[in-house]
Write a structure and sequence with these properties.
Length: 338
């Protein structure tokens, strides 16, 4: 019996060393260790031997099995690396493989819409201005004809940083900052973040506005209306309906709000327009003489118009987004759609 094991060992070692590839090696494994393999047969026949023989032959046979397994594994690793290298040598560089696309990011839908709006107004000759997000109460309210006790302050739940300093609730203070530094004619737009203590499906405590201001000799409400109509047609398309509704803002007189026909349902009524067919997109009006007075402009000589546009609102309309919060959650499943 021992001789037989010796035979198996010699033959297995020889065949393993000679196996030219992984497939041949696997056949060798089956020949010795498979269900009908030479060594398996020996192990299976142990039961026919006497107690003493069974113990000594069993031990040797199991040792041999372990040895063959190790030899098989070593040869396999060797063959595998060799085969991979051979393959690599055969095709060092496959120029026909499609390239790997780098994962590049993209602009946030709010940024894209803001840039589009800015582009439209720049073509009309407006310049881009900016102001601080942490603003004084004076610029955010008082200079805009909204003194301490004005009821209009109630409409903008304000975050106070400390007495006299607020997170700006609107981009309108940029109007005043610009007029303080420049003489008419002035034509600016001011995009930026604004903050209000407000949160539901259509309100976020931080959102975006674009302010517009034009001051010159003889500016009229017709100029304001024409400019806004042009903007709406450019941004939403010529088929969009546009309506001027009387409104109130302390810093404009007269004041108006602009509604457009809902671009989601085309005016037939849906969730976004609360079934009215119309959506408000901005507030506007003719600059109040009190505002001119606070910046030292001669309100006998100059007139002007101003407007404040909600970027979030028009982004939601453009893409039929049902909740403003999608814009701020940074969920890639949402952002990758743009
Ligand atoms: N600041 C206003 C708001 O946030 C919007 C606004 C209305 C801006 C009328 C204006 C304007 O410049 O003339 O509600």
């Amino acid at each position: 019996m021992n001789e037989k094991l010796e035979c198996i060992r010699a033959e297995a070692v020889r065949q393993i060393e000679l196996a030219p590839n992984v497939r041949a090696l696997e056949e060798t494994r089956v020949r010795f260790l498979g269900r009908k393999g030479a060594l398996t047969e020996v192990l299976r026949s142990l039961g026919t031997l006497c107690e003493e023989e069974r113990r000594s032959i069993g031990k040797s046979a199991n040792e041999l099995k372990a040895q063959i397994t190790v030899a098989l594994d070593q040869r396999k690793t060797l063959l595998e690396t060799g085969e991979a290298e051979a393959r690599a040598l055969e095709h060092p560089l496959d120029l026909t493989l499609p390239g790997r696309r780098p994962a590049i990011g993209r602009l946030h839908p709010l940024t894209r819409v803001a840039e589009e709006v800015i582009g439209i107004f720049r073509e009309l000759g407006f310049q881009v201005a900016s102001g601080p997000e942490v603003e004084t109460e004076y610029y955010n309210f008082d200079s805009l004809n909204t003194p301490d006790d004005h009821p209009a302050r109630d409409q903008q739940d304000t975050f106070f940083v400390r007495p006299g300093i607020v997170l700006r609730t609107q981009t309108s203070p940029v109007q005043v900052r610009v007029m303080e530094k420049t003489q008419p004619p002035v034509a600016i737009i001011a995009p930026g973040r604004v903050y209000r203590h407000d949160a539901d499906a259509s309100h976020s405590p931080m959102f975006f506005q674009i302010e517009g201001l034009l001051v010159d000799h003889g500016v009229s409400l017709a100029d304001l209306k024409g400019t806004l109509l042009l903007f709406v047609h450019r941004f939403f398309g010529r088929e969009t309906k546009f309506r001027f509704r009387p409104g109130f803002f302390p810093f404009t007189e007269p004041s108006a709000e602009v509604d457009i026909s809902c671009s989601v349902c085309k005016g037939t009524g849906c969730r976004v327009c609360k079934n009215s067919g119309w959506v408000e997109i901005l507030g506007c009006g003719m600059v109040h003489p009190e505002v001119f007075r606070s910046v030292g402009y001669d309100y006998e000589q100059y007139t002007g118009y101003a407007f404040g546009l909600g970027i979030d609102r028009i982004t939601m309309l453009r893409h039929s987004i049902s909740s403003i919060h999608y814009l701020y959650e940074n969920d890639l499943r949402f952002l990758e759609q743009f």
